Amino acid sequence: MTTSQVRRAFKYRFYPTDTQAAELSRTFGCVRKVYNLALAARTEAWARQERVNYNQSSAMLTAWKQTEELAYLNEVSSVPLQQALRHLQVAFTNFFGKRAKYPRFKSRKKSRKSAEYTASAFRFRDGELRLAKMRESLRIVWSRPLPDDASPSTVTVSQDAAGRWFVSLLCDDPSITHLPTTDAAIGIDAGLDHLLSFSTGEKIANPRHERRDRVALAKAQRRLAKKAKDSANRTKARHKVAKIHARIADRRRDTLHKITTRLVRENQTLVIEDLTVRNMVKNRKLARAISDAAWSQVRSMLEYKAAWYGREVIAVDRWFPSSKLCSSCGTLADEMPLSVRTWTCECGTTHDRDVNAAKNLLAAGRAVTACGAGVRPQRSSPGGQSAMKQETSRREP
């Protein structure tokens, strides 16, 4: 068992004073302004077939602060402004590397409100955190302990759409270690009737978190639609809608954390399907149910937790016919309509549709570990089929 050098973010809720809230709100606004100014400058340079790097945009920031129009940038800590430029540099690096789309401008109403502080702009001592330009420490609710002798390298302060304040501390976590190696392996099939079905025959019920609050959410959204634009009442109504969304997201995240942690701890190899959720949500009839199931979030959690604990996650090609293939004899059925939840193969074996798919995924994943067979994700679709059509044909709301 080896120790993993993991840098982990610990997120806590805090309750700022009025002065702190005003200071942080100013900082959020300045971060957004600097990001947009730098993006505009780099976009203009891009039109001239020139590139502007971080050092050049940092020099621009210095010049902006010296102008009368942008002198207010000097009123907040300079570190979050510099970090905004670094984030923009990463965005452009990903764009040029064809890993992301062209960076977009930040909106005052829709973009995430956050500011990142490096070690030079905060002091963390004896469980108290004080940010630059502030006289008092943040009133943080320490809902879980930090690692012993934790020394955060960066601190990110954010405010969500529901008005809640959070602080995230990035630090090394020596408590995360690779788990003892085991022979256990599991195939995982994602669905809507059941959230997850395993090759062991177990099924996880779909909590349908959004459905539980659908009536309250619709009512709050109707009230929001009736409020005058840019009015105080509209802002209050928007916060009520955001609180419902936050409650749904919190419940969903908690459920997925419990499930994925258990799967990673119990299995050495986890085999999943390479679902194209981005295309699948284009189906208007299933978009809400697919979004609520959060399959992409399940995969993300499995992957980073597997890296933490020394496990392996294998993604099988999305075109692999896991539902139509008999896991006993290998016979491929001609058709498998969505309404068919159980079916009997020519060999006489009766299959549960989802469990059978999970068993086939496990077999395909084992082929990868054994000989590196070609069931890895493919970006080109055979026969001109669309990923949405193929995936949604085997899901149900």
Description:
With 397 residues, the protein is α+β, with helices and mostly antiparallel strands. The chain folds into two domains: 7-172, no CATH class; 185-207 and 242-392, Nucleotidyltransferase, domain 5 (2-Layer Sandwich). The protein is built from eleven helices and 14 strands. A hairpin with a 4-residue loop joins β9 (194-198) and β10. α2 packs antiparallel against α3. It is globular, with a radius of gyration of 25 Å. Residues 373-397 have low confidence and may be disordered.
CATH classification, class level of the largest domain = Alpha Beta
Distance between the termini: 42 Å
Total discrete domains = 2
Strand-residue proportion: 15-25%
Overall outline? globular
Poorly predicted regions:
373-397
Order of helices and strands: EHHHEEEEEEEEEHHHEHHHEEEHH
Task: Trace the largest sheet across and list its strands.
Answer: 2-6-7-1-5
Corresponding CATH architecture of the largest domain: 2-Layer Sandwich
CATH topology of the largest domain: Nucleotidyltransferase, domain 5
What do the pLDDT scores average to?
87
Main beta sheet, described? Answer: 5 strands, antiparallel
* Fraction of helical residues: 40-55%
Query: Helix tally?
Result: 11
Spatial extent as radius of gyration: 25 Å
Number of strands: 14
Secondary-structure content class: alpha+beta
